[in-house]
Amino acid sequence: MTPINDGSIDPMEIRQAREMIVHSERSPMRESSTQDSPARTLTPFRSAEREETVILVGVPRPPAQRLAETEEHLEELEQLTRTAGGVVVEKIFQTRIKIDPATFIGKGKAEDLARRCEEHDIDTVIFDDDLSPVQQRNLERMLGRKVIDRTGLILDIFARHARTDTAKTQVELAQLEYLLPRLTRLWAHLSKQYGGIRTKGPGETQIETDRRMVRDRISRLKRKLERIEQRRRTQRKSRRDIVRIALVGYTNAGKSTLLNILTGSDVLVEDKLFATLDATVRAMEIGKRKVLVADTIGFIRKLPPRLVVSFHSTLEEVLEADFLLHVVDISHPHMQEQIEVVRRTLKEIGADRKPVITVFNKIDLLPRPEMITALSGAEAGSVFISAARGINIRELLDLIRRNLDERHVERCFRISPPDYRLLSEFHRLCDIHDERFDENGIVLHCDIEPAVAGRMLKEWPDRLTEIDGEPRTT
What we know:
Elements: H1 12-26, E1 52-58, H2 67-84, E2 86-93, H3 107-120, E3 124-127, H4 133-143, E4 146-149, H5 150-161, H6 165-179, H7 183-194, H8 202-238, E5 243-249, H9 255-263, E6 280-286, E7 289-295, H10 305-310, H11 312-319, E8 323-329, H12 335-348, E9 356-361, H13 370-378, E10 382-384, H14 393-407, E11 409-415, H15 420-429, E12 431-438, E13 441-448, H16 450-459, E14 464-466
Parallel strand pairs: 1-2, 1-3, 3-4, 5-7, 5-8, 8-9, 9-10
Antiparallel strand pairs: 6-7, 11-13, 11-14, 12-13
């Protein structure tokens, strides 16, 4: 994070505009349009020698949002700020029935906030709600400090944690769409300084140029994400007959830790928000069945809609899954609200009708173990585990196995004439109970998913038939 108060005598807007110019000149966004690599991220925070001091601002709006709820939201905003590298010095609340269109919090409160910023030598002010470009500009003028909102903060964290090309592309797209309407305030000072009467100042020319470059870059990123989605659809098609499970949940609920213990993988695990941005798919064996488990991006309250859109290719792993493991941090004081946030987000992306197993994680951190008894009665089809300590993992695997069994039905088939390639497909996709040869071919009794059986009957109509009444051999 870079402090704003560096002793410079330049006005705030001029410094911001210069940062924007320098950053854009160094960014691939300024390079040839034939380049398809993600541009350097345009983030509100950058690394610095010292941590940046921050004031958080929450605005309760009764009756829809009361003070206690806003306090909870600022606790999470403080976590986000720490993840981005900032230090929260103070939290400020301003109850309003109606939002001020110019400053969000009203002129009087903004003046009081400016005094607090001066007293504590604050670098940045972060609002828990989205600010319009006009509100952000007006507040920065009044405070003489950098002002960002919750969306800008989350975008910064995403930019810091993006490691793969796909994640970087998704984050950059969201950032540029967030930046586009805010270019006006960054270039306003130039047109004021140089624009004359009935003349078009260079600032106006520059903003038009930057807007065009940003829009062009957005178009290229969208085309690139379309190619990524097409490639992932092809990959999913190749594994269409394998059961797929998606891990979903609030950020930092322990999804990656659970993926590692289920599949024996070594996915990055960190105790911080949004450590995982990419969908990571690993294989595991449940009985004789191969299962693919996908770890997906964590959800959070007030998740910016542009992020949901930008991360569509990652969230497709949830949409394509056969069922979901909803991982819940049972030790979190606001667990129930986090559950509701995840359920609302699943509904927004069209995955709310998927079968779900609720996995209450981190039971080793519970202050009151009796919570398990209360929740087990309220949440049917749930299991209580500690992924970090390996507690009750066997119970989870048994519950997954029962769900898999419910998806399979016993069927009998004849392969005639014998086709060993088709026979190997049955062994790969089904649980074979009985297999025998007769004068007409190969007879199989197996547990198979109806959809898989339908596809195989359609692909091998001249060799595969379903039969009834064939007794098993003993």
